[in-house]
Task: structure prediction
Amino acid sequence: MQLLDGKKIASEIRKELKEKIDVLKSQSKSVPGLVAILVGENPASQIYVASKSKACEEIGMKTKVEKFPSTLSEKELISIIDKYNSDNEYHGILVQLPLPKHINENKIIESISPKKDVDGFHPMSVGNLVIGKETFVSCTPAGIQELLKRYYINTRGKHVVVVGRSNIVGKPIANLMLQKNDYANSIVTVCHSAASDISYYTRQADILIAAIGQPEMIKGDMVKEGVVVVDVGINRIEDKTSSKGYRIVGDVAFDEVSAKASFITPVPGGVGPMTIAMLLSNTFKAYKLYGE
Result:
């Protein structure tokens, strides 16, 4: 069994991007810019935005965090986004989700210019992904594919089973792995809570991608020998032996499944760091396509 070390690969990606940005600076050129918009006081969202902003700063990317109270109206938020749509200093716009309940998330996502949709959530980005056109791919699926690529895992004709159908992970990674591209071109099955027996599908997986949000749901008897496992889950469970009173686990029972897997992501340190690395990569891509 070999770990798919997302922390290591993400560090390599950040280093590569920093080198490119250093060259831009040496030539007195502008650099990629990312603005993050945070509405409300959600503690997890504050942590996520801070970590993304810090990652930008570390590689020399221009970054700005706009914080607003939860009372901000939908109309006001769209007006703020419109301002950044036409701001040439910022090539990526990230609106941290979830938003307060009085704001329609779909409307907000659609108000971001597709040229600055570095989260890959805009319907135009999603549509381009489905039909196989060049586009911004949402960061977690892009990170998963990049992990497979950097560990030289053969995906052509392999059976990829995705557990979960969210718009952020399940659906886009299924579409990504279907494409007739390198490190894709797979046979893809998507299974979810409507399945009477999810293990029927997971046991068939050459590559299993778990994104269900249920701690340690995938057990050792639910996978076959030699499977490649990508665990997207981040779940907090009670642990009285820990000083924090909890520990973080994935959607996969790591000890059981790793005994049968050829490759597996750890939690934490697997997919999470890759998500931020691909956000930086998408922002650099936006800069190269539309901002130079």
Notes: The CA atoms of residues 108 and 277 lie 24 Å apart. The chain has a mean pLDDT of 95.
